Amino acid sequence: MQTLPLYVLDTYHWSSLGAGLVFLPLTIPSVLSIPIAHFVRHFTPRTVVVTGFWLMAVPMIALRWTEANTVHHQVAIISLLFIVGVCLTTVQAIIMGDVSNAVRKIESLHGITEENSSGLGRAYALCNMAFAAGQTLGPMAGGLIKRELGWGVMTLVLGILCLVAGLSSFFSMLTAPPTKGKNKANKNDVEGVL
Predict the structure, then answer these.
(1) What is the pLDDT of residues 127-166, one digit of tens each?
(2) CB-side exposure of 144: number of CA atoms within 13 Å?
(3) In angstroms, rounded to a whole number, what is the distance separating the alpha carbons of residues 105 and 117?
(4) How far apart (Å, rounded) are the C-alpha atoms in residues 165 and 23?
(5) Are 89 and 33 in contact (CB under 8 A)?
(6) Torsion sign, CA atoms 33, 37, 39, 44
(7) How far apart are the first and last CA of the chain?
(8) Are 167 and 51 in contact (CB under 8 A)?
(9) Cα–Cα 20 to 30 A to 71, which of 62, 88, 113, 179?
(10) Max CA-CA distance within the chain?
(11) CA–CA separation, 82 vs 59, rounded Å?
């Protein structure tokens, strides 16, 4: 969303400081990662991620209706960006936590034990590579779409991408694998604390 600072500069005539601070509504919700992860632990990861992506599509598409230089539209863009930030934080927290579930599932299918495997490290490396690719290609594609087709079409494309990401998460996310000896481990943990 590197187009965002340029958009608020052009549309609302904010200063460069205001254009930089427009990212705060997207980043402030990240401090809620732990409470959000604690709250959604009762649901399956796939349900949370799919719902988060689909809910994110609504404010993404609604950003197209913030093109007037009025206080209402400025408040609307900040509010919509905050909702996007909450959805992003929720999805990212659950996906990062679910990486270990995916690795355990793959390792159990192939009979790999934890002692001779570095699957978790590779999984997080791939996750970081995907995140970096998105940060590189996303602003380039968004800027190109905004320049050629306008802000409204760009927000529509982002909303559609959220729906597609939710759909692909629905079909690709695994259920959490059962952990062997869970009750025994919990008993040992309790005895260790006492």
Answers:
(1) 889 889 988 998 899 999 999 999 999 999 999 999 999 9
(2) 5
(3) 13
(4) 22
(5) yes
(6) positive
(7) 50
(8) no
(9) 88
(10) 65
(11) 9
Residue 151 burial by Cβ neighbours in a 10 Å radius (0-12, 13-18, 19+): middle
95 CB neighbour count, 10 Å cutoff: 19
The pTM for the full model equals 0.81
| Neighbour count for residue 49 (Cβ, 10 Å) | 25
Tokens 């970081």 correspond to 128
CB 80 within 8 A of CB 151: no
* Token representation of residue 60: 């993404």
Q: Are 50 and 94 in contact (CB under 8 A)?
A: no
Tokens 């990240």 found at: 30
Q: Give the long-range contacts of residues 63-67, CB within 8 A, separation 24 or more.
A: 63/151, 63/155, 63/158, 64/151, 64/152, 64/155, 64/156, 66/11, 67/11, 67/151, 67/152
CB-based contacts of 64, cutoff 8 Å, min separation 6:
151, 152, 155, 156
103-136 pLDDT, tens digit per residue, is: 888 777 877 666 655 778 888 888 889 889 988 9
Task: Tell me the pLDDT tens digit for each residue of 64-97.
Answer: 999 999 999 999 999 999 999 999 999 988 888 7
- Give the single-character DSSP code of 29: G
